[in-house]
Amino acid sequence: MKKQILYSLIFLLGNFSLLSAQVFHCMSDKIVENTPALQEAYAKTFDFAKEHAQKYTKQQGTVYQVPVVVHIVYNTPEQNLSDAIVMSQIDVLNENFRRMNADTSNTRAVFKNRAGDAEIEFYLATTDPNGNPTNGITRTQTDVTTFFDAGDLTAILDAMEACNIDPLDLLTGNITPEQEACLDEQLASTGSGDSEFLDKVKFAANGGADAWDTQHYLNIWVCNLSLDLFGTPTPAVLGFAYPPTIAPNWPEGTLPDNIQQVDGVVIHYQAFGRNNPTADVLAGTNDLGRTCVHEVGHYLGLRHIWGDGPCAEDDGISDTPPMAEQSSSDCDFNKNSCTDNDPITGTDLPDMVENYMDYSSEYCQNMFSDEQIGIMRSMLETARVELINFTPPTPIIADFASDKQAVYAQESILFVATATGTGDLVYTWDFGDGSTGDGATTTHSYAQSGVYTVSLHVTNGEVETTIEKENYIVVAAEVIGFENIDNQFEMFPNPTRNTLYVKTAQNQNIVSATVFDSYGKISEVAFDSKGENVQIFTETLSSGVYMLQLQLADGKLLAAKFSVLK
Q1: All domains of the chain in start order, with CATH
Q2: Buried-most residue among 32, 336, 341, 462 (CB within 10 A)?
Q3: pLDDT by residue (tens digit) across 160-184?
Q4: Looking at the annotation, which residues are catalytic?
């Protein structure tokens, strides 16, 4: 069927053991099926890669390295999976793609000579799109309780009712061609089942996380894809991925407009990683991290090995024998759903339930076939070549300073930026009072007294960086001794080690004292005020130059510099 009609069964039955494989194991095939332009583009890419893969031989010796960014998008603390779980998932990907998983011995003899090492490895990115160091993990707390849109179910249920379809009949396939046609027509008229509703997690504006450059990083979003069934959250979809396409080679409009923003893999948080403490109902079937292996297989061009149809359908790969249907979440090694002869041996072979691209339990999955490996490597050499040819950009290193940090209203300040980076650098200033400026050097004056945070944004069009200095500029209400800043206060000893004694020249009461470091940040210090006399306790300050701001009882602000020696 063209639409994701089986979602309704989760809602109506809530029977995990019955539905896990058939309903929500993977949505990748449905996304392609429901997006004609994407389906056409992927089909062309697959055919091209298949031809390119003919040159593949086992153990070529070239190991492709794929940079990964994992976006953890969480609503509750338990969904905020630890770095250790993320690392375990990377380990699982590498073990399974390199055929170093501990259960390779479980590959049956009839398929053992078809199993191979893909020579593809994955690593958490060490450099972000701006060239800055990263651990390859982003974390976004969201107000979205689930990124599976239950509104889609309403349309499905209405369509089933209009077509007189019983959910149990739909589950067992016991519906008439007329009912199936009716259901497709009903859902097509509502737009239900399209993939866009699952892509919300890929946009910060929707409560998710924006993708990093999808040509240079494998983006994996980990989020909640469950439904609340009668008060019990139940996984609705375990994962999905967009297949590769060679977009530049085809006419404009062939692909979805936002393919560069949504390309990647999405995994339900309970199915992510190994020994995930949140696995719950997925324990024993989908808790080994192989849901992600399956989806990355789609991301690299693989189809489900049963071809998402009966024996006549095919995954386009000859060394995965014909199958009439997907496996359930079990390990039925006796299953032989299709009696068609294997294209290679000319004999009838059992279903390859140990293949990662089946829906069998993760406990019996243990292999990719040689031709599947050829397809994936070909995709990395063509449609996804930017992943393995990626050179991290050179970061921009920037800072700024000013000729003054303590001024009075309307006094001009010179700001000077220093930056290193490639290309033409563009400088944009935010002075904290609603005014902006540009250029590596600029001047600005403040109309009102106060304390202002200044930031500098530098970009070359490829990478960017922002430097912000909190409470950097102190503006006094009127001129009091700024012509000779040292005469504003009586400060001794200066430099000081532990205590700075301060007295105002006008003998006015001091109501507050604030110390700023050279970066404009407030340094917490204790002080004792007795009218016009103040003791600033500097034991906690390290050696350096600081700015002291005093507010007088009449509202005036004074500022002066002092030094600390340790």
Answers
A1: 7-56+66-321+366-388 (3.40.390.10), 397-476 (2.60.40.10), 482-564 (2.60.40.3080)
A2: 32
A3: 778 887 765 665 556 787 877 787 6
A4: 295
